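Q: Predict the assembly, please.
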Amino acid sequence: MGLRIGDIAPNFSAATTKGDINFHDWAKGSWVFFFSHPADFTPVCTTEMGRTSQLAKEFAKRNVKPLGLSTDTVEEHKKWIGDINETQHTDLQFPIVADPDLKIATLYEMIHPGESETQAVRSVFIIDPNHKIRLTMTYPMSVGRNFDEILRVIDSLQTGDANRIATPADWRPGQDVIIPPSISNDEAKKLFPQGWEELKPYLRVTKLK
Ligand code: BEZ
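A: Predicted assembly structure:
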């Protein structure tokens, strides 16, 4: 059975480019963007690592720590970071987990044997400060991820947690949000005194103050 939304992200100890970590201790109090790559010194991965580094301020603003992983060693990761910085014009500072024996990739089911027996696919786990998995996404090896979507999902989850709302398709911060069906109209009156538009009894749209 795979790791699912709502599960506690399994803890692990690992060597990273920033030293040894105990995952839960390292993550304490933060959101985590944990993402895997097939291998060091590969082209798509190089752009994704670069993009994550370029977005460092965006992640920090949202209290999110990025954590990369590929099934190579710390020494290889460190050499590769030089290439990433050079080609993607950045200064990569977040840790990358070394996982040459596939221990963590196996724990997080990042190895999909139909794709590769030895390299991780492009998995994403968004994990909240309670270590709960809030989103999983899996991309094939040939497709670089969309980082606007990763930030958008984090914005949606954090806005939802703070306001007990859900967000519609293609939502962007500042746009109207949805009052979930689990909230009665009586409760909604207290939570959303600004009112809402009821398109259907199950589809109530409001603006956040
Ligand atoms: C890449 O990151 O460029 C890549 C890695 C494995 C297979 C295909 C592409």
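The pocket of benzoic acid is lined by residues 38-39, 42-45, 141-142 (CB under 6 Å). The domain at 164-206 is CATH 3.30.1020.10 (Antioxidant, Horf6; Chain A, domain 2).
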